[in-house]
UniProtKB/TrEMBL annotation:
Source superkingdom: Bacteria
Pfam families: AhpC-TSA
Name listed for the protein in its UniProt record: Thioredoxin family protein
Span of domain Thioredoxin: 9-161
Amino acid sequence: MVSVSTPVCDIGRVAPDFILPGTDGQQHTLTSLAGENGTLVMFICNHCPFVKAIRERLIVTCRELEAYGVRSVAISANDPSLYPEDSFDYMKAIAQALDFPFPYLYDETQAVAKAYGAICTPDFFGFNNDMRLQYRGRFDAAGKRPPTPGMRRELFEAMKQIAMLGEGPREQAPSIGCSIKWR
């Protein structure tokens, strides 16, 4: 698999709205998922080794962010004909097995991923309470490796700062992951 990096954060960009089906059987909109102090929109998938490497820590991070008024949502936009593990049925199984603390949505047309400019999994978009982009960086420096003791929790720190100040860090390291599997 080829890994790609996200571009520099377009700070202040307004979050594109959407309506997408979730693994919970409900339709979700960005507005219905917005957090009081911020919203984290994550593009992930089931098969990507970069996502698999952080999945358990991501779940913990999203649970911790709730205490700061930050809600999270994950979206998969991969074409399952290329990677059957990314099918909607498999998304449901993963979300249930891992007890995701966030809605896991399916972008079958890939229109939402394109509207956000998502290019890889994982790709993180951190918005303030005005739905203006403040963070587009990595989870942490570990990538696919296990984290080292004392490693900064960059995504957590950024979203906590957004919740408290309305602005994200000005220095952001790009996320790296597998390319989105476009139709």
